[in-house]
Design goal:
The longest helix is centred in the first third of the chain and has 22 residues. This protein is mainly alpha-helical. The chain contains 12 helices and no strands.
């Protein structure tokens, strides 16, 4: 079928790019071209369910991305490459049941992308990439009955994508599936809840100042804020519960 044709085309392209890179092994651009093509071949293997064929290519691409990033850590594209490479490698590892390595490579991607999100928290593309990577980590962890330390932040970022109209159907599906994890504090932990509280509170404050969100979106945030505030009270958190309750009440008053 078409996937088989795509696989053959990408494999031919990979052979050509490897030959070009061999002619100039010092070229970072040529090395990145090889890694990108390896990741494309890996992606098709994954779509075909050929996890054994996918894994070596995914790992090779990620290794190259990591080397290029280490050589030029200020390059934003290099950080994004590590993140996307980590997601592909983790998918292949997860499909083979290697949970430990899948979670480890996702942590590698999260660490690479984190500075970009902190520098530009409103960058929708970076926010989406981080949301999907955190959600992937959470899904793998929960399916293996492991602690899911990124659950709260994943839900927060997915909710922000939804409210900004930037969520894809798969993002909404992830949000619906992962949100219940917040009701299990022993699995999520207090620190990620604090992160989520800060995201929700800051977003509510932006809505109050700008009145830029629809009434439905604002009320959705109120519901999330109240649920989170109750959860934080149960876990003995500090200032966040009162702050969230206060902001939620303000929003309800404005909506009426």
């Amino acid at each position: 079928g078409r996937l088989d044709e795509s696989l053959a085309a990408y494999q031919r392209s990979l052979e050509q790019r490897r030959a070009l890179s061999a002619e100039d092994p010092a070229s970072a651009e040529a090395r990145r071209d090889v890694a990108v093509t390896e990741q494309n071949v890996c992606a098709v293997h994954l779509l075909l369910g050929q996890h054994g064929g996918a894994l070596p290519l995914c790992e090779a691409a990620l290794a190259t991305y990591a080397q290029l990033h280490a050589a030029d850590p200020s390059n934003a594209q290099g950080r994004t490459d590590v993140a996307t490479g980590a997601r592909s490698a983790a998918e292949a590892l997860g499909a083979r049941g290697d949970t430990e390595r899948a979670l480890a490579v996702l942590e590698q991607g999260i660490a690479a992308l984190r500075p970009l999100l902190e520098a530009e928290p409103d960058n929708v593309r970076t926010r989406a990439e981080m949301a999907r990577m955190l959600a992937q980590h959470t899904t793998i962890a929960l399916s293996a009955r492991r602690p899911a330390p990124h659950a709260a932040e994943a839900v927060a970022l997915l909710a922000l994508l939804r409210d900004a109209g930037a969520a894809q159907p798969a993002d909404l599906e992830l949000l619906a599936r992962l949100a219940p994890a917040l009701r299990r504090p022993q699995r999520v932990g207090l620190q990620p809840l604090d992160i989520l509280a800060a995201h929700v509170a800051d977003d509510l404050q932006r809505q109050i100042r700008a009145a830029a969100f629809s009434q439905r979106a604002r009320l959705d945030h109120v519901a999330l804020a109240l649920q989170l505030a109750r959860q934080l009270r149960l876990t003995g958190a500090g200032e966040h519960p009162e702050r969230l309750f206060r902001l939620a009440v303000h929003q309800v008053d404005d909506a009426e």
